[in-house]
Every structure is written in structure tokens, then in C-alpha cells.
Amino acid sequence: MAEKKYVVAIDQGTTSSRCMVFDKKGLPVCSDQMEHAQIFPKPGWVEHDAMEIWSRTKDVIRGAMEKGRISPDEVAAVGITNQRETTVVWEKATGKPIYNAIVWQCMRTQDFCAEWQKSPGWEQDETGQGKVKDHTGLLISPYFSGTKIKWILDNVPGSRERAARGELLFGNIDTWLIWQLTGGPEGGVHVTDVSNASRTLLMNIKTLKWDEEMAKFLDVPLAMLPQIKPSSHVYGKTVANGPFRGEITVSGDLGDQQAALFGQVCFNKGDTKNTYGTGCFMLMNIGETPVSSKNGLLTTAGYSLQEGKCVYALEGSIANTGAAVQWLRDNLKILDESPDSEYLAKKVDDSGGVYFVPAFSGLYAPYWDMSARGSIVGLTRFVRKEHLIRATLESICYQTRDVVDAMNKDSGVPLAELKVDGGAVRNNLLMQMQSDILGAKVVRPVVNETTALGAAYAAGLAVGFWKDTNELRSNWAEDRRFDSLVSEEKRETAYKGWKKAIEKSKGWLD
Ligand code: ADP
To answer: Is 341 in the pocket of ligand 1 (CB under 6 A)?
Structure first.
């Protein structure tokens, strides 16, 4: 038996699938990545082919193992992290999906959600308080899996009856991949973890069990739902004739944002991370009691290391941050590459009084205004493209500030330090501006692949590859720390301008 030197993470994201191998120090050893097709059948609808995702996942596993010349005997465990909420329903006997995967971004159930909000007993106020929040920590929204499952069962003839008979299975992508890796139709394990289950609208946020009232209302048979397990837990073994070419313990499962929280070792109450990608997702560890937000945040399961126990998180999701930089690049063509935003924005001292609210698809946390649209305000003849680019980077920081303020109000403790990760954090100017706009420290780790790392950590902990969370903490290393360089007065004056700009964007659609 070879020495166990590695843990493998599969990171199945919205646009691509990746496989990364980590060593004992939590450092990446090798990886492989492949994209999959985005399917847009109608405006606002987004689907993936779940079979293609499984295929690409197998390819990247083989790719990473070959690149690093890694033998399955050297791998202690496999962890999965995934795009959350995306919904797959498939036949247990054949492993064939009965419909394309409905992606988290898909808005097809918006009308149903609007009706639902008006149903007696289910109404929610503008911050989302109501029965759904009580049961699930979430809001009534097409974003989450529950109404997507309902849509499939309503639209594929006979599927609800088949699901009730146990012939059809539901899963988010974590569940789909674990089932396939552990044997598929020949004995695949049908499980999920609390962090993924907490994004379905079907898990009770207090009991961590499927919520019968929610399932009944959405007409989802309990027989099709996976077992809810801790995020670090031995679920099963990969089959010997699968992509790993060996039997490896599958023992980590976390939704991507919760995985980043875990990979950033945010194990103490109050520890907070923000991931800067297409959008931003900020999660704060709130300990073992699910506090309900009064300020437009979601309450979500952070991670669980033990059956029946859970560390919760408050989550602020922002839809468009890096996407606004992409818009400058692809639509306005004033950038060749996203990273050029840094040196161009540096050419000016400030944004020249311009504010850009990139509410391309409405405003998510903390506003939850789906009728908002983007706006650029404060324009004068003085303004050049460099000002607009700077205002775009500032918009990422201001949106983050909005969420931090909501978190501070909910938790009652001001944020002292924000751990950051994701593609855009390599932009040093962006990070400096973030610290200036927050008036808090911004800390960037050496390993920026925290999502995959979090899944690896969960898997490795379950099999004793890492002893405990203290050992994981000692792996975390700081790359750079940013401290605010502006006065409180300057910070707050500038932020007031942002709040005015937000008002211009809100309620734009009739
Ligand atoms: P995702 O996982 O959401 O696809 P990534 O973590 O790969 O995203 O980050 C990519 C996003 O970050 C893109 O929207 C891109 O425009 C933005 N981005 C990447 N690098 C930079 C940079 N140096 N400065 C500003 N934005 C950047």
C-alpha cells in the first residue's frame, strides 16, 4: 500500500469542472479543468446537460491524475464542491436525467414565486421575513432548488408519480456526482450535505432534516430526496472501474461558497470571507445557532463535521461584480483583459464623481430588488474611460460594503478583518480600495483556490489525513494584507454618493 500523500477535490462550477490535488500542507499539486455548454432555451432560462457535466468531471479527474502522475493508492480521500442550487432529476435504474439540469441562475419559476409570495400564510415582508425564512433561512426565489424540482415534476409527464415510487432521484450537482462516482445504477450512494441541502427550500434550517411542510407545499415527494449528511463524512467509495481507476473514500461535500468559507479556515464565530468572481459571495460564520437576518441576508448551513450539528453562516450574495468588469471588456470594449482595469484605473486619482451601479439583473443582497437595473450617474464632460473603469472597481467594493453593513447590523459586532479570494483579488488596487471603503483590514491568502481546498479539507478530516481544524488553521498563510489609507470622513462622504446612486437604480422596471 502506497503512502497516502494527497487529497483530491472536484470543483464543479457553473461554467467549468475542475479537479485539483492537494498535499498535506494544503498546497495545490496539479489540476485539470474543462468547460461545458451553457444552454439558453428561452430568455432568462439556463440549463446544463448533466451527462456532459459527468463526462467532463471524469475527463478532469483523469487529466489531473495523469498530469501529476498520481496513483489512486496515494490518495487519502475525495471531496466534492459544486455550483449550488442547480437541480438534476434522474432515473435510478438507468442513471439518465429526465430533463436538463436547471441552473441556479434560471428564472423560469419567477411567476410561480410571485404568486407564492401572495398566498395566505406565506407572505414575506421587504426584508424577506415570513414563513419561508422561518423554515429554511431563505427567501421565496427562483434561485433555490425547490421550485426548480417542482417545475420538472409539473412538466415531465408521469414524473411526480414515478418520483413518489422511488424510481426518480433528485440531487444538486454534489449528489449527482457522488452517486455516479460510487457506482451509479449499480449501488450509487444517494446523499447530500447540509450546506447543499440548505439551498433547496426543502431543508428545515433548525432541524437539518427535510421539511415536510415545505415539501408538501411544493409537491415534491420525499422519496426522491437524498439523505442529508455532515459535510465531512465517509459517504462511500469510488468504483474501481471509474475515472480514478481505484477505490477511494469519498468524504467531503460542500456547496462552493461554504467550501470557500471552510478553505479560508473561518472556524470562529465572526470569521468572514468574500469571494470575488462574476458575482461576490460573502459568508460570516455565526456559530451553532441559526440567527435570522433582519437586513436582507440569507441564513445558510455553513458546514457540519458531526451528525446533527452545524455551524451556520449569514450570506450576502451580490449578482454582478466581476461581471461589470467583463461588461467593460466585452460590451464597451474599453479593456482588453479584466486585469488591465488595475493600471488603467490607477491613471486617475478618483472616479471623477462617477458612480456605476451594475444592477444588470436586479440587485441581490441586501436590497433584493429584481426590478432594479444598471445606472451610471455623476457624468460630466471631464469624465474619461479611466474614471469609468475606476468607478466599476469601486462598485464592487461599495456593494461589498452594503453587505458588510447588513452583517454588522445583524451580528451586532463590527467586522475587523475580511478574508478574500476568487479571480479578481489579484487586483491590488481593488483590494486597497476595498479596505478604504470598508474601513477594515482585507487579507489575501497565499492559496487562492479556497473553494477546492475547502472540499479537500472536509474530505481529509473525515479520514484522519488532517487531525483536526487546528492543523488546517496552521496551513493557512497570508499573502498580503491591506489597511485603509483614507479618513473616516472621506470614506463616509464617498459612500453617501453610492447610496444616492443605488436609489437611482432601484425600481427601474415598472
Ligand atoms: P467565476 O468563478 O465566477 O467564474 P473567477 O473567480 O474566475 O470567476 O473570477 C473571474 C471574474 O473576475 C471575472 O468576472 C473577471 O472579470 C474578474 N477579474 C479577474 N481578474 C480581474 C482583475 N485583475 N481585476 C478585476 N477583475 C478581474
So the answer is: yes
